[in-house]
Please model this.
Amino acid sequence: MFKRLELHNHTTESDASITALELTQHMVKDKVDAFAITDHNTISGQKKIKDIIDEKGLKIGLIRGMELTSYYGHILCLNLDKYVEWEDIDINCPEKLFKRAKALGGLAGVAHPFSYGNPFARGCRFDMKITDYSDVDFIEISNDLEPLHEVNERGLLYWQDLVLKGEKLATTAGMDLHGLWDFSDNFATFIESDKPDDNSKIEEELYKAITTQQTWVSKGPILKCEVKGDNIEFNIIDTGKPGYKASRKPFMIVLTTESDELDIVVEGSSASISKSEIKGKRIVPKLYRGESIMEDLVCVSPLIEL
Model:
């Protein structure tokens, strides 16, 4: 089973127009399995949401976090219940901030790396210079309401280039909610779970998924890839995400390696190819409904290593 996570959300504890209660109700209404509270430079909303979930007996999972927000870029921190000091920020050495968040028990990743920055939204673009990715856990490859090509496609290609070079980085997506916005046909983060009705340990499940780079970014369908003997098998799984706008176009799987790209048109919901058809040892699988263009992208799967 796959759990849907909404990992980038704000409340009136920072700069959003919705309260902790309204955010929680919004998530429950859209059948989210778990969500993160990631207000800018504050953790004050975490207890409020936990109290709401406990008092109402909700089964939805809570992921505590904070968006470290600076004039040089934003770092999304998950599984974090402590404030991250960042006043000594250095644009040429962001690694110390990632290390600091991880030392406090959190996961840390780059938020919306190619968002518009100056002069429109100073600090939203990630201008810090990372030279060592060993303490970076994930890249937010889709910040759903950002421009498709100028921001999100560049984020996807940024992550893809890094993992094809051997970096260990998971993917995430987020709505970056600041209001009661519509989730329909937007990307979410999915993780595989053997506890379909239990979200009490969601932070542990997320930690395992992120640190093993087993996350899916999808609008609804999941492309699951498994290496079995001499073959790679692909299965398309319907998660039932509300608002996914399916089309009559056939599914297409695109396999990108260090030096090549292979397209597979899928008849039905499964496919298989021989490993000998692949040129390369690292493969980024992506699922499209129609052409291999960003407008038709529905799922980015974890890297395959042969």
